[in-house]
Amino acid sequence: MEETAPGHPAGGGAAGHGGAAAPVSRTGPADLADPADVAEGGGRAGRGAGARRTRGRARERAEGEGRKGARDARAAKPEESVDPEARARDICLRLLTGAAKSRKQLADALRRREIPDEVADGVLTRLEEVGLIDDAAFAQAWVESRHAVRGLSRRALAQELRTKGVAGDLVEQAVAQLDYDDETEAARALVERKLRVTRGLERQARTRRLVGVLARRGYSEGLAFRVVREVLDAEAADGGPDGEDVDGGPGSGWE
Predict the structure, then answer these.
(1) More confident residue, 82 or 176
(2) Quick one: what percent of the chain has pLDDT higher than 90?
(3) DSSP labels, the chain
(4) Whole-angstrom Cα distance, residue 219 to residue 222?
(5) What interhelical angle do 168-175 and 154-163 show, nearest 10?
(6) b/e for 207-243, b at 16 or more Cβ within 10 A?
(7) Interior CA angle at 55 toward 49 and 60, to 5°?
(8) Rounded CA gap, 190 and 194, in Å?
(9) What are phi and psi of 138, to 5 degrees?
């Protein structure tokens, strides 16, 4: 009987008998590990990598916030370190670049920016001395502009200047440049501009509306009614809408 050589499985087939040689296993201990253990190890590794990425992102955000805070601090530092007088002067010059301002307007702006009153007063006085603040010139220019553009009366202009802190004597000087004829012409021009939008209404309704326009611009009732009546009469004479004349009546306060 043929014996099987030790270490070779029976029937394995020798190469000389035409059989295929059995492969030699070269697996190591790792290859023999339990699949469940491998999966668990891989899970721990994945979780560890994810945790490291999370910590890295958190660290990056913290560093970014720190850099932003440092930039903000550097940006705020010059503002805080600037001398209050220099700040006050800079604020005033910026405001005066846009348009003329009264001293009170500038003082209010400095107070809102928390400039000490004694510092603000010194800066404003200096700007007055060099002519950058001139309430008299401001009032004159205000009256000319607002009267020409909006047709405001002397009374309305005086009220506006007083709210801007212009002294009473300077207000009187400024509105004195307008006389009664100037007011009448401005009122008439204003009524003529508004006349078209009242067409189609009865004369009494038109009168009320047009007088209201003048009253809101500070004109007296007597002047307003007289100008409106003259404009409506002129329109009727030119072939425009006609209607019943409206008088104020005794004791009505109308002219």
Answers:
(1) 176
(2) 55
(3) -PPPPTTS-TT---GGGTPPPPPPP---TGGGS-HHHHHHHHHHHHHHHHHHHHHHHHHHHHHHHHHHHHHHHHHHHHHHHS-HHHHHHHHHHHHHHHS---HHHHHHHHHHTT--HHHHHHHHHHHHHTTS--HHHHHHHHHHHHHHHH---HHHHHHHHHHTT--HHHHHHHHTTS-HHHHHHHHHHHHHHHSGGGTTS-HHHHHHHHHHHHHHTT--HHHHHHHHHHHHHHHHHTT----------TTSS--
(4) 8
(5) 150
(6) beebbebbeebbbbeebbbbbbbebbeebeeeeeeee
(7) 125
(8) 6
(9) -60, -45
**Count of Cβ atoms closer than 10 Å to residue 103 Cβ:** 21
Of 156, 217, 157, 155, the C-alpha closest to 187 is 217
Instruction: Name the token pair of 210.
Output: 């047009």
Q: 22 φ, ψ to 5°? A: -70, 135
What average pLDDT is seen over the chain?
77
Cα 63–chain centre separation: 32
Contact 217, 246 (CB under 8 A): no
pLDDT band at 77 (very low <50, low <70, confident <90, very high): very low
pTM comes to 0.59
Q: How many whole angstroms from its chain centre is CA 31?
A: 71
CA 233 remoteness from chain centre: 48
Residue written as tokens 């950058």? 132
Token pair in block for residue 176: 């004195």
Q: Which two tokens stand for residue 129?
A: 């001395």
